[in-house]
Amino acid sequence: MLPPVSGKDPKAIRRVVLIDGTNTLYRAFFAIPSLRAPDGFPTNAAYGFVTMLAKVIREEQASAVIVVFDAHGETFRHRLFPEYKAGREATPEDLSAQIPVVRELVAAHRIPVIEIPDFEADDVIATLVERAPDDAEVVIVSTDKDLMQLVDERVSLVDGIKSRRYGPAEVEARFGVPPERVLDLRALVGDPSDNIPGVKGIGEKGAARLIDEWGSLDELLAHTEEIKATRARNALLAHADAARLSRRLASLRTDAPLPLDWDDAKLAEPDTAALRELYERLGFTRLLEGLEDAGGRGETAAGSIDVRVLADLSALDGLVDELGSSPSASLSCVFGEGGPLEGDVVGVAFAMDPAAAVYLPIGAEGIELADLVERLAPLFGEPGRVAWIARDTKRIQMLFAERGIDLALPHFDVAIAAHLLDPAGARSPSAIAKQHLGLDLLPWEDLAGRGAKARSAAEIPMEQLAHWAGADACAVAALHGPLAEKLDRDELAALYDEVELPMTRVLARMERAGVRVDEARLESLATEYEATLATIEKQIHALAGEEFLVSSPKQLQHILFEKLKLPVIKKTKTGYSTDESVLEQLAPVHELPRRILEYRRLAKLLSTYIVALPPLVNERTGRIHPTFHQLGAATGRLSASNPNVQNIPIRGEEGARIREAFIPADGCTFLSADYSQIELRLLAHYSEDAGLVEAFRQGEDIHRETAAEVAGIDAAAVSEDQRARAKAVNFGIIYGLSAFGLANQLGIASAEGQAMIDAYFDRYPGVRSFLERTVEAARERGFVTTLLGRRRYLPDLGSRNRTLRMAAERMATNSVLQGTAADLIKKAMVDLDAALAVRGWTARMILQVHDELVFEVPGSEVSLLEPLVRERMEGVVALRVPVVVDIGVGKSWREAH
To answer: Residue 407 is part of a domain; what is its CATH number?
Structure first.
């Protein structure tokens, strides 16, 4: 049996994949055209299922996998409602014939199958989710809408055929309600495919509106007489019992008797002999070839590449001669846990063509890193005799720079090229090779393992590392040509060559530089915040009338809704929601929710930054070294980790006090340069709206001017509240904020929010025209482009689902503006980095946060740097309105900002 796992080896299973076998099999059958085995047996469903299975195991990095099928016969739902699933068409004969074969394929993969009489697959999956290890992420592979009620922060749902993932935000975008309210919505809408009646006359959109207004089905049914919409009120009065029955039918049971232990579900090596026999019988030639090349799960089918291992200096000298006579070479570095800053590299592979590679083990088993760097410097160092390409050029540049060698700018980076071509597509080396070459590379996770059993690079046998790195280097060499052609085809070559590729050098320098933090200041802040939290906790206990664990949602639920009888705003499958949005709505009603919000905010800052920053200080450099990610967002924006400096609060005293702890090196100061309202300026540029353009040209306060124009009053008469509302509208237009969202943000009625938006568009008609043009062009082409040509594909613009379609429309305009802003600051960074290098100044760029750049600069260079930064940032591109940069200088990030 599978009991709930709590405190039992939490590292053993980190990622559970639950495959809805029945749903996936049907999807594969109808998604793939008719296929036949040599003997004429139908195989399309089986082929689709097994390729999906391999893909999910590979991409989800599963540590435990279970396939769940519907059991034969009726279930408990038929006893509740005899007409349940009545009228369903019989399973196609060709599909029925393939079900036993699919079971054989799953068994050969040594993956357990569960089907339980009287329960549907959904109930079994719900039970497995309930009893999954506490610390495990759960991935449900299915498109069944009923399963979306299980989605939360640790449970996601994936369409295994189309590779679409649903988290809480995507579920809410799909249905208009959060996952915990999906069951209530399904009770109203019903499900014709299962013959669940629902409430006749209420569709999905209307149901979402009603649930959003009343909070839950129970509240809705309790106040039916108060519903203003006549049609909905009459429908509910007539069919309230049908809604209750529908909810019971759509509810997922979590008490299915499970016949196995979690250890039985751990991912194991497949039975290759059984798979070989099945693939031969079914005529799965390509899968068979991959199996023969691999001999097991996840090995490469990269073809017959030749990998030579060179482990001494004379062999290295011979390689240097080979490389010197080649116009280009690809590199693949295998880094250890310390990474390039620490020179922790286990081996390097080189390929001069896609069919042969050389691998050099570094360290005890082979060549010293210092010897490798010394001999390669004349080839790859500035100005560069040999063009070098890779898929992780930033880290390679850091590795060599830490040893005193500035590499020539890389000739090509396949990961960045692939991301530009398809921002939502492949990320991993194996996925890129598969997408653009149809090549099956061994994913790193399949070589090193996953979860608690994962091996570090240093623990993997050198022969295996050599083959993996050699195949990777060969794939990089093979990808160069096709990706370069596609960049030209999509008119992305200029953006790639002038911005994204040189950004690798900029980010390598920034990451190496790092930033200094005042550990004593952080320690003092930690003591202060802990004392403040203790005081707030006492106040919370006094307001509650008893002591309880403030961080426990369960205990807080009891205090708020059972003891204090505060109104229930949202329910979840585990009780009543106590999330931030709920507490904000309860704060005007009672002091306790307000205090809880204050406690949570301070606790998060304490744990995420104040306590977390000191352990990140590098012992050698005495600084923290954030990692900046070029491939983090479809809009082109950079993201950061270790730490995520992008998420330090911009507004508020707490965030400002954290920025106080970021300090320059001795003898230096910080210079902060921040684009002023860049996205609104871009809106003016794109829309060409005369009023908006003129306001920026005159240097007016755009929020005050908007308030004045919309209200029809003089700018001097605009109150701070009116300005704040105008600011919400200005930015809301960029982010596609609805009237409801604006009303919720400002605490006003939806009608008033709509009136504000309408008034805005009346005053700035060019903006409305721009939004409409952008969406229409995106619908025709399938993508939007930024000023510098970056593309973002929006397939949901053609969706029949209104929620998805509207989300894509909002994304279209947002991507143009936010993406262009991201391109501009990147281009400015490239220009400034080059300018600093030419001048030989000591000043260096160390942080990029949204629209802000932070420099560490000696006091003697401040007067030189400020005009240079202003010139390059403001002159990065010519717009119809001025580009303005706010610059500050100070002895801490707070003071400079």
So the answer is: 3.30.420.10
- According to DSSP, the β-strands at 344-353 and 356-361 are antiparallel
Say whether the peptide bond before residue 383 is cis (omega within 30 degrees of 0).
Answer: yes
Q: Could you read off the pLDDT of 35-84 as tens digits, one per residue? A: 778 777 888 889 889 988 888 887 787 888 999 999 888 889 888 888 88
Residue 890: which CATH number? 3.30.70.370
Distance CA 167, CA 184 (A): 18
> Whole-prediction pTM value?
0.67
Report cis status (omega within 30 of 0) of the bond before 643. yes
Q: Residue 84's domain is classified under what CATH number?
A: 3.40.50.1010
Per-position b or e across 524-553, b if 16+ CB within 10 A of its CB:
ebbeebeeebeebbeebbebbeeebebeee
Asked whether the beta carbons of 631 and 790 are under 8 A apart, the reply is: no
d(CA 688, CA 104): 63
Among 624, 654, 669, the domain-final residue is 624
Q: 369, 374, 410, 418: which is closest to 393 by C-alpha?
A: 410
What's the rounded Cα separation, in Å, for the pair 346 and 333? 8
Residue 385 tokens read as 């005799």
State residue 409 phi and psi, 5-degree precision.
-55, 135
The strand order across the sheet containing 328-339 reads: 306-309, 356-361, 344-353, 328-339, 387-390, 412-413
**Within-domain flag for 777:** no
Give CA–CA dist 782/776, Å, rounded.
10
- Report if residue 848 sits inside a domain: yes
What is the distance between the terminal CA atoms of the chain, rounded to a whole angstrom?
Answer: 58
Structure-token pair, residue 246: 């529908």
Are 717 and 731 spatial neighbours (Cβ–Cβ below 8 Å)? no
Residues 370 and 446 in one domain: yes
| Torsion from C-alpha of 247, 250, 253, 254, nearest 10 degrees | -100
Whether residues 857 and 830 share a domain: the answer is: yes
Q: How far from the centroid of its chain's Cα atoms is residue 492's Cα?
A: 23
> No. of H helices and E strands in the chain?
37, 24
Task: Give the start-end residues of each E strand in 595-692.
Answer: 627-629, 639-641, 662-663, 668-675
Cβ 629 vs Cβ 511: under 8 Å: no
* Selection from 631, 627, 626 nearest residue 391 by Cα: 631
Tokens representing 824 are 């501009």
CA distance 531 to 346: 46
258: containing domain: 15-263
My answer on whether 186 and 135 are in the same domain is: yes
Same domain (yes/no): 639, 708: no
Pair 470, 349: CB distance under 8 Å: yes
**Residue pLDDT, tens place only, 216-251:** 888 888 888 888 777 888 888 888 888 889 888 989
Amino acid at 891: K
Which pair of tokens denotes residue 596? 């809880």
Cα–Cα dist 151/169, whole Å? 10
Which residue, of 763, 793, 820, is where some domain finishes? 763
Q: Decide if 892 contacts 670 (C-beta within 8 A).
A: yes
Residue in 824, 787, 790 with CA at minimum distance from that of residue 678: 824
Q: How far apart are CA 253 and CA 286, in angstroms?
A: 41
The per-residue pLDDT for range 800-830, each reduced to its tens digit, is 777 778 888 888 998 999 999 999 999 999 9
Please report which confidence band the pLDDT of residue 11 belongs to, taking 50, 70 and 90 as the band edges.
very low
279 inside domain = no
> 803 and 897: one domain?
yes
Task: Note the helical H segments in 386-518.
Answer: 393-401, 414-421, 429-437, 444-448, 462-489, 493-495, 501-513
Same-domain status, 181 and 237: yes
Same domain for 529 and 562? yes
Residues 592, 559 contacting (CB under 8 angstroms): yes
The structural domain count of the chain equals: 5
Whether residue 563 is found in the same domain as residue 659: no
Q: Is residue 268 part of a domain?
A: no
Q: Give the model's pLDDT for residue 390.
A: 95
Say which amino acid occupies 452: A
